[in-house]
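lol forgot to send this yesterday, sorry. struct tokens for the thing we talked abt
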């Protein structure tokens, strides 16, 4: 992607960003024993004793696979893996066994993780060519969906963020060519269709990860806006408008301006439009993303521990940007606005202060009790912008509260909504894409806690139920529309179990989920 070659400014110097690993996936009808690859990955069920393809390979390898299983080094548990070296007995250099667990419990999520694991381990051994043997015998399987899922998994596991790592050329893995292999041509035909979609989604999600992984000194609001413009210009069907700080002031967007006023990097609001002919929806859907490119907490300064992770506070904005690219490339018949609220939250002599009262774009006033409750302040202007654009359905996506991490751990995003039908559609998309959400209460009692005494609202309540009160605050700017809020703070980066099959850092959460939601608009 050309964007990966952007000149990036760091302090007073300028460096050239390195290309992130290039991943390409295809499907091919071939004999697994004859396909040349650095790694041939094979999924193994723990409760299936006989498989013609697997037994055939084991025979060619002089029983190496069965010996490994016999001595207990590989029991095919979900997520487990083991290498077997071919020693010239088949065309591939290595065979990678990946555990699927019990066959009756297999799911698309397990296939996704297995594909990610295969790519992850392939890159770890500096493989350039990966083959994944598909020997799934289920007659009623959705092979097109399986092709998409495996392809997305390969991109997810193969990704490496190394723009600022000094490596000798022979040490760096710059590309991974992956082939999904089956000896059944009708299956390959269906798989190939899914691969085409998975390539688009996988590449976009990985670029969202790159944006989030970049340091705050490199990626700030104006730079993110410039990238959004380049993505839009390079993608047929997208148009992009950027409001700078002067335009934000003219529109009286006091929420986003207040948050960003302490930084030398002034805020931006990015509006990306996709309006295809024959769209199924009469009113556009809005996706609103929080993009705090770095969050120090402002005057209410965060603790130093783990503050470096606050470059991920733009995950919602990155997900919205790349979802817009995907739906345009897939030519989905749905009209959508992507609204990205970008700011830096930093303390200086001009920062907004606890006790300040901000007038938001909607006209509602907000007393600032905590400058680290900044995400809701930029989002409320974004939600109002969605209403100005006459969007009747809006989903916002934000790394909003640590309270949501406390409630759900690092494995699910929080979902809040004023419309149950919308919530159910989001939950369905989340399940389909393995980007899990859990619905939390959106009720008046939480909204009441956000009512102000010297202003309409305040931006913080008690320490209890912080994710619910934050949603209650946002809901005040989403009246008369179908609205859902996704608090993705729990899923902004790789959780501990996930590190077994992907690099630590951003996972680009929300790209797959939002795409699937929009693909199912009727």
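and heres what i got for the seq, position by position
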């Amino acid at each position: 992607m050309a964007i990966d070659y952007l000149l990036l400014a760091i302090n007073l110097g300028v460096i050239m960003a390195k290309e992130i690993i290039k991943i390409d996936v295809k499907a091919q009808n071939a004999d697994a024993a004859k396909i040349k690859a650095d790694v041939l990955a094979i999924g193994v069920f723990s409760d299936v004793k006989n498989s013609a393809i697997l037994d055939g390979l084991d025979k060619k390898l002089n029983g190496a696979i069965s010996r490994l299983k016999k001595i207990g080094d590989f029991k095919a548990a979900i997520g487990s893996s083991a290498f077997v070296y071919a020693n010239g007995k088949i065309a591939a250099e290595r065979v990678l066994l990946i555990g699927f667990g019990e066959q009756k419990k297999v799911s698309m999520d397990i296939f996704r993780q297995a594909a990610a694991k295969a790519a992850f381990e392939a890159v770890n051994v500096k493989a350039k060519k990966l083959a994944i043997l598909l020997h799934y015998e289920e007659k009623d399987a959705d092979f097109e969906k399986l092709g998409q899922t495996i392809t997305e998994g390969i991109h997810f596991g193969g990704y490496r963020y190394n723009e600022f790592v000094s490596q000798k050329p022979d040490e760096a893995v710059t590309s991974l060519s992956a082939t999904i292999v089956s000896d059944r041509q009708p299956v390959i035909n269906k798989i190939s269709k899914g691969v085409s979609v998975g390539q688009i989604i996988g590449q976009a999600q990985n670029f969202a990860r790159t944006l989030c992984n970049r340091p705050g000194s490199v990626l700030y609001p104006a730079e993110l806006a410039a990238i959004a413009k380049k993505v839009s210009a390079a993608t047929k069907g997208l148009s992009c408008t950027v409001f700078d700080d002067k335009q934000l002031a003219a529109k009286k967007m006091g929420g986003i301006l207040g948050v960003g006023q302490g930084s030398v990097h002034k805020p931006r609001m990015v509006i990306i439009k996709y309006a295809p002919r024959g769209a199924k929806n009469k009113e556009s859907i809005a996706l609103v993303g929080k993009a705090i490119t770095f969050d120090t907490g402002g005057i209410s300064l965060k603790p130093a521990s783990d503050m470096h992770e606050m470059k991920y506070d733009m995950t919602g904005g990155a997900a919205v940007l790349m979802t817009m690219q995907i739906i345009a490339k897939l030519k989905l018949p749905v009209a959508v606005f992507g609204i990205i609220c970008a700011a830096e939250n930093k303390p200086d002599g001009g920062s907004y202060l606890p006790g300040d009262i901000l007038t938001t774009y909607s006209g509602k006033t907000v007393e600032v009790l905590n400058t680290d409750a900044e995400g809701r302040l930029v989002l409320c202007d974004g939600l109002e912008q969605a209403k100005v654009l006459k969007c009747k359905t809006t989903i916002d996506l934000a790394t909003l509260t640590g309270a949501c991490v406390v409630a759900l751990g690092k494995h699910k995003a929080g979902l809040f909504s004023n419309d149950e039908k919308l919530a159910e559609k989001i939950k369905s998309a989340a399940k389909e894409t393995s980007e899990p959400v859990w619905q939390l209460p959106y009720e008046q009692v939480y909204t009441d806690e956000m009512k102000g005494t010297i202003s309409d609202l305040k931006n913080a309540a008690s320490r209890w139920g912080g994710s619910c009160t934050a949603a209650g605050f946002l809901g005040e700017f989403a009246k008369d529309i179908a609205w859902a809020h996704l608090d993705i703070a729990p899923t902004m980066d790789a959780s501990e179990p996930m590190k077994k099959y992907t690099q630590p850092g951003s996972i680009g959460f929300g790209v797959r989920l939002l795409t699937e939601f929009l693909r199912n608009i009727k």
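The first strand starts at residue 7 and ends at 10. anyway ping me if u want another try
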